[in-house]
């Protein structure tokens, strides 16, 4: 029986890819590096995000990169939208008494704005944000909420989410609505790969939320 679902935020519940891509290109330009096409960015971006910047802007300090990011991102934040079927899935979880948690690298200030504006943050029971390395925090989350990994699934759009689920001893569900493409996600071997949250919701309903 699925009793807990851990969600990623970016690319899973909301679409912030255009905003992050434009912001990252601004950082690359400030660092004297070439801009990337959206497809190139999706091919190369990864979590923890420090790995991406270590490859492309290793001559710039992380505090400087973060300062640039937080100065630039608000210019694009208006483009962040709720992904289709996110709300209905979260509402279904709530109606069934399934606990929902968030584990995301999104900055707390950005999360607060997006959550308030879009209104879906209120449907999550607990939120862990500003997490650079999810694998380093997953066991803390399990302890904090006395989660049974066997009754918990992790839903995300990136290889790091799948790896984090495996590290926590839980099943992983990958969605094709975010940053990583199908070959990248397939290479990480998720327990389930779906096109979007509608497909996931339908599958869970068909199984009465008992299994994948």
Descriptive notes:
The protein has 10 helices and 8 strands. By secondary structure, the chain is an alpha/beta fold. The chain folds into 2 domains: 4-15 and 81-206, HAD superfamily/HAD-like (Rossmann fold, 3-Layer(aba) Sandwich), CATH 3.40.50.1000; 17-79. The strands form 2 sheets. It has a 6-stranded parallel beta sheet with strand order 5-4-1-6-7-8, with helices on both faces. Strands 2-3 form a two-stranded antiparallel sheet.
Summarize the topology:
Elements: E1 4-7, E2 14-15, H1 17-30, H2 38-44, H3 49-56, H4 62-72, E3 81-82, H5 86-95, E4 99-103, H6 108-118, E5 126-128, H7 138-144, E6 152-156, H8 159-167, E7 171-175, H9 182-187, E8 192-194, H10 197-206
Parallel strand pairs: 1-4, 1-6, 4-5, 6-7, 7-8
Antiparallel strand pairs: 2-3
Task: Jot down its keywords.
212 residues; alpha/beta; Rossmann fold; 2 domains
Which fold name corresponds to the CATH topology of the largest domain? Rossmann fold
Radius of gyration: 17 Å
The DSSP helix count reads 10
Structural class: alpha/beta
What kind of sheet is the major sheet?
Answer: 6 strands, parallel
The strand order across the widest sheet is 5-4-1-6-7-8
Number of E-state strands: 8
Overall tally of domains: 2
